[in-house]
């Protein structure tokens, strides 16, 4: 296989479905799903995904460059890796999704919609991920899942991470890696969700994060230099090399409330240019949906992912409060 992305976009199985380089063995699992195993003893298991939304192309290009370098034998590999391009049909169409948002369908939520390609794809990704996590048997290797995205809107933090609800402490090496990847902010969920990273964290105790890297643009229109730190950190993670030095610790936010579009009457009181992490004062009216009113409850809340066009019953935005970083992660 010469190019993981082009093979995925072709919609065809490769002529050669497995192979070996001086560093690894690779195996084609399914369209957009590739497993790579180091020839040496693996240090941990890593799921690396992108393209869950088909119009978020910068992370796909970044990930593809790294996977192709591994397939050409130009990089060493230290970990077991499952590389995933999440929604090939949407990638081909250049659309966020065709009928349903795949990143709302995990944890079995695909069963709640009509039988369609995206419901089947969410199931297939669950199956492939579960098989990968469990393949190592009882080996106590760290499990990480990095799901690479871009945001629909501009953002006051160009690069940020969203971490799912997790009842366990986050591993320090994982949080340190996110800082080394150049993330300016980390957002911690306080409720379960249907995202790919929540599925990995909740079911397999994987340290997982949705990385938001810039704004959604078509293939070829991305300035990947904005994400050089993330690409360097990914290359270092895969090869076992030294991480780039974190310039500063990311700011930390916690989800305080969710804005949900309940009916056709829903109105979001933010214009299309409102950036992620825009601050609103206490008492500000955020949205209305019939008799339901969403109002800022804390002294200051920051909006994330405002989108009035989501399907009924889905999240139309999150409101965040900023938290102090734990003392042990503050720069000295």
Would you kindly provide a written description of the structure presented here, covering whatever features stand out?
This protein is α/β, with parallel strands linked by helices. It contains seven helices and 16 strands. The strands form two sheets. The chain has a 13-stranded mixed β-sheet with strand order 1-2-3-5-4-6-9-7-8-10-16-15-12, sandwiched between helices. Strands 11-13-14 form a three-stranded antiparallel β-sheet, with no helix packed on it. Strand 1 (18-20) and strand 2 (24-30) form a beta hairpin. Helix 4 (117-135) packs parallel to helix 6. The radius of gyration is 20 Å and the shape is globular. Residues 328-332 have low confidence and may be disordered. It catalyses: N-succinyl-L-glutamate + H2O = L-glutamate + succinate. Its cofactor is Zn(2+). Residues 43-237 form the Succinylglutamate desuccinylase/Aspartoacylase catalytic domain.
Summarize this structure briefly.
The chain is α/β, with parallel strands linked by helices and 332 residues long.
Overall shape: it is: globular
Secondary structure tally: strands? 16
What count of helical segments does DSSP give?
A: 7
Helicity level: 10-25%
**Order of neighbouring strands in the sheet with most strands:** 1-2-3-5-4-6-9-7-8-10-16-15-12
End-to-end CA span: 46 Å
Radius of gyration: 20 Å
| Average pLDDT, all residues | 91
Structural class: alpha/beta
Following the backbone from N to C, one meets helices and strands in this order, namely HEEEEHEHHEEHEHEHEEEEEEE
The main pleated sheet reads as:
13 strands, mixed
Give the uncertain stretches in residue-range form.
328-332
> What percent of residues are in strands?
25-35%
Protein name: Succinylglutamate desuccinylase
Enzyme class: hydrolase
Domain Succinylglutamate desuccinylase/Aspartoacylase catalytic: 43-237
Cofactor: Zn(2+)
């Amino acid at each position: 296989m010469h190019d993981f992305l082009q093979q995925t976009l072709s919609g065809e199985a490769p002529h050669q479905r497995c192979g070996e380089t001086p560093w690894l063995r690779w195996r084609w699992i399914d369209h957009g799903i590739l497993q790579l195993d180091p020839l040496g003893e693996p240090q941990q298991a890593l799921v690396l995904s992108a393209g869950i939304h088909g119009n978020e192309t910068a992370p796909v290009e970044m990930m593809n460059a790294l996977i192709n370098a591994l397939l050409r034998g130009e990089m060493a590999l230290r970990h077991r890796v499952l590389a995933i391009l999440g929604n090939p049909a949407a990638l081909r169409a250049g659309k966020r999704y065709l009928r349903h948002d795949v990143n709302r369908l995990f944890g079995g939520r695909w069963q709640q919609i009509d039988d369609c390609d995206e419901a089947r794809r969410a199931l297939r990704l669950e199956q492939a991920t579960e098989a990968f996590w469990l393949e190592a048997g009882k080996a106590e290797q760290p499990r990480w899942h990095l799901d690479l995205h871009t945001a629909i809107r501009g953002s006051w933090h160009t690069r940020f991470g969203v971490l799912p609800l997790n009842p366990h402490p986050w591993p320090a090496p994982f949080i340190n890696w996110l800082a080394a990847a150049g993330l300016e902010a980390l957002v911690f969920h306080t409720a379960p969700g249907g995202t790919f990273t929540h599925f990995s964290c909740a079911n397999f105790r994987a340290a997982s994060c949705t990385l938001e890297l810039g704004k959604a643009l078509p293939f070829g229109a991305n300035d990947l230099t904005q994400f050089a730190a993330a690409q360097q950190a990914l290359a270092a993670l895969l090869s076992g090399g030294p991480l780039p030095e974190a310039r500063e610790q990311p700011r930390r936010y916690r989800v305080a409330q969710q804005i949900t579009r309940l009916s056709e009457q829903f109105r979001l009181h933010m214009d299309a240019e409102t950036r992620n992490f825009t601050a609103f004062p206490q008492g500000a009216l955020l949205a209305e949906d019939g008799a339901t009113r969403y109002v800022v409850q804390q002294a200051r809340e920051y909006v994330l992912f405002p989108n009035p066009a989501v399907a009924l019953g889905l999240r139309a935005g999150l409101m965040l409060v900023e938290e102090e970083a734990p003392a042990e992660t503050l720069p000295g």
